[in-house]
Design goal:
This protein is mainly α and 59 residues long. It is 86% helix and 0% strand. It has one domain (4-58).
Amino acid sequence: MFKKSDQFILLAVAISFAVSGFLWFSGQREEGLFTAVWVPSILCFGIYFKLAILGGQRK
């Protein structure tokens, strides 16, 4: 179901989310917000390359 590349993207998202939560609750709110922005960015990066691969296979 999930390829190895999908698992790496989801792992990066999970790590970013965990680090963001840790920073937020440890009192470093600005750093936590900055790291929280990475989560959707990493997901969009993964979706883009997934679609690029699928589009290349159709041709």
